[in-house]
Amino acid sequence: MDFFFYVGSLYSYLSVMRIDDAAAEAGVEVRWRPFSVRNIMIEQENLPTANPAKIAYMHRDVVRRAERLGIPIKADMPHPVDPEQLANRVAIVAAGQGWCPQFTKAIFANWMQRHDRPGDLDQLKALLTELGQDAEAVIAEAESDKARQAYDAETDAARKLSIFGAPSFVVGNELFWGDDRLDDALAWAQAN
Amino acid sequence: MDFFFYVGSLYSYLSVMRIDDAAAEAGVEVRWRPFSVRNIMIEQENLPTANPAKIAYMHRDVVRRAERLGIPIKADMPHPVDPEQLANRVAIVAAGQGWCPQFTKAIFANWMQRHDRPGDLDQLKALLTELGQDAEAVIAEAESDKARQAYDAETDAARKLSIFGAPSFVVGNELFWGDDRLDDALAWAQAN
After folding, report:
1. Which residues does B56 contact at the CB level (< 8 Å), separation at least 6?
2. CA A123 to CA A51: how far, in whole Å?
């Protein structure tokens, strides 16, 4: 199963924190794929920025869902964050090197539990160092054309799968959108 | 618990068909409130009409969810329907007379299972007659200023509760959006 997420999507947090256990229980393998849902939503004029009622709801709902799922969270998360999408490009580098889940969980946890902004250079370096990475080298690679192209390629792959939001789960040609479809997607993967 | 729905919202179908059983099991009383989510979404520039990927997804997802929930459905439902929102005004009349759930389930079932368009006058009359109502009298009342004002008042109540989509569930000040939040809303109603 492909797991498309975006460091910057509030609802992606819930899936990031629970997908490993849920997938293991279902016996389903997961590929973590960071992509720019932001660019896609801008193209589709689908950003909720003009809709204060919906934004307020999303914040409240994510907190309520996290509490229901037993996932730590602190309300009033900063959002939107990381206009350069640097944290997502680091996630792309991490995916190429096999430590994407580890990095993604850590940066989301810092964002949603401590209100550290993804993309903030100081916290990014500290976090990479904690994960045993060469922080300067990783960030240099995340800023390279190669990482930018790889990120664009993943976004393009998402576009071709008709993905319009994050998180999304893809099993064959079947698309599931939203953390609240994680269980449906895993059941689909098991049955097909 | 207040149940805000719209005859014309694909996802409202799922809640319409299962809310009575789910609420009875939870011991929660439900008030059925038809309102114009369409007018609210137009005001908020939140109609997905410009987003073919999202529309295609919604159709597929509703069918998949219905199958998972054991609710009959036939794919390729006509949508959007009933530009005059006549079926919703009939639902308002029905709410005033105590037969709103009965009418709403019947019109949604015809729409989603047989592809009858809500608002089509012939099927509306047949359905009202089947329900033991005086079809001509009910439709005349649904076209009256009184029914239009009552419908606008319910839409206004929804607006004041910060509702931006359908179905929505409200318990006190707590808003839940989407059929996939029905269980959360009922659990909230039980606990609070």
Report:
1. A162
2. 31
Residues in CB range of A48: below 8 A, 6 or more apart:
A54, A55, A58, B46
Identify all chain A residues contacting B45, using CB atoms and an 8 Å cutoff: 50-51
Sequence-ordered list of residues with C-beta below 8 angstroms from that of A122, at least 6 positions apart, any chain: none
Q: ipTM, 2 decimals?
A: 0.91
Encoded tokens for B90: 């009939």
Chain B positions with Cβ closer than 8 Å to A: 44-46, 48, 50-51, 53-54, 56-57, 60-61, 64-65, 68, 162-165, 175-178, 180-181, 184, 187
- For an interface test with A, the pick among B41, B175, B179 (most A C-beta atoms closer than 10 Å) comes out as B175
Sequence-distant (≥ 6) Cβ neighbours of residue A166 within 8 angstroms: A4, A5, A6, A9, A11, A12, A35, A37
Hey, what amino acid is at A23? A
Tens-digit pLDDT string for chain A (192 aa): 999 999 999 999 999 999 999 999 999 999 999 999 999 998 888 777 778 899 999 999 999 999 999 999 999 999 999 999 999 999 999 999 999 999 999 999 999 999 999 999 999 999 999 999 999 999 999 999 999 999 999 999 999 999 999 999 999 999 999 999 999 999 999 998
CA distance A125 to chain B (A): 37
Of the candidates B83, B56, B71, B68, the one whose C-alpha atom is nearest the C-alpha of residue B109 is B71
Query: Shortest CA distance to B187 belongs to which of A56, A64, A54?
Result: A64
Sign of CA dihedral A71, A76, A80, A85: negative
Query: Does the predicted model carry a pTM greater than 0.90?
Result: yes
d(CA B61, CA B130): 31
Axis crossing angle, helix A135-142 with helix A86-97, rounded to the nearest 10: 110
Read off the tokens for B47: 């109609």
Which domains does chain A carry?
2-191 (3.40.30.10)
